[in-house]
Amino acid sequence: MIFETERLLVRRLKNTDASDFYELMRDPEVMHPIPRKTLSRKKSDLRLKELIELEQKSDTNIWGFTKKSRSEIIGICGFLKNNKNEEEIAYSIAQKFWGKGYGTEIAKGLIDFSFDVRKTSKVTADVNIENDKSVKILEKIMTPSFEFYNIKDDCIDRRYQIKKEHWYRLYKS
């Protein structure tokens, strides 16, 4: 286990997560707001293998998360580096678990982990401005800083950020 929140456990991805991972990667409702194309089973399996291997080679960490009462992953989450080499959180949740507060819970858990364990001073999140669900989550817990054209994903992203001292003042005091 990497860390836990009130209802969720975050752990390393495993090859046995292939079916649950594919459920995320094949769902257009999950993938298009990011925006990313859905994946075939073969491409999903290859992507899962890449993510498992990536953790051993870089600062990028993508993990699976489960409800404490279940073993199958209900989403993926982790850390990337943005174009300014700053800590960036990322998460994606299976559609059948939307609207239950898991997005906010995992985002807060990632921020806590970043400040408490990874010892960062600022956390960011980039989101496609048309990804209403993620925008709503990030608006609750972070501050928007600017918008930019994301060449790779061909969309307008908004960068959110929060500094450690502000996070601690809001959520740790």
Short synopsis of the structure:
The protein is α+β, with helices and mostly antiparallel strands. The protein has six helices and eight strands.
Going by CATH, what is the homologous superfamily?
Answer: Gcn5-related N-acetyltransferase (GNAT)
SSE-based structural type: alpha+beta
What summary fits the major beta sheet? 5 strands, antiparallel
Taken in chain order, the helices and strands follow as: EEHHHEEEHEHEEH
Please give the number of β-strands: 8
CATH topology: Aminopeptidase
> What is the CA-atom radius of gyration, in angstroms?
15 Å
- Count, helices: 6
Describe the overall structure:
The protein contains 6 helices and 8 strands, in the order ββαααβββαβαββα. It is of the alpha+beta class and 173 residues long. It has one domain: 3-Layer(aba) Sandwich (Aminopeptidase), CATH 3.40.630.30. The strands form 2 sheets. Strands 1-2-3-4-5 form a 5-stranded antiparallel sheet, with helices on both faces. The model has no long low-confidence stretch (mean pLDDT 95).
What is this structure's SSE topology?
Layout: E1 3-4, E2 8-11, H1 18-25, H2 28-31, H3 41-54, E3 61-67, E4 73-81, E5 87-93, H4 102-116, E6 122-128, H5 132-141, E7 143-150, E8 155-163, H6 164-172
Antiparallel strand pairs: 1-2, 2-3, 3-4, 4-5, 6-8, 7-8
Helix pairs in contact: 1-3, 4-5
Keywords:
173 residues, alpha+beta, Aminopeptidase, 3-stranded antiparallel β-sheet, 6 helices
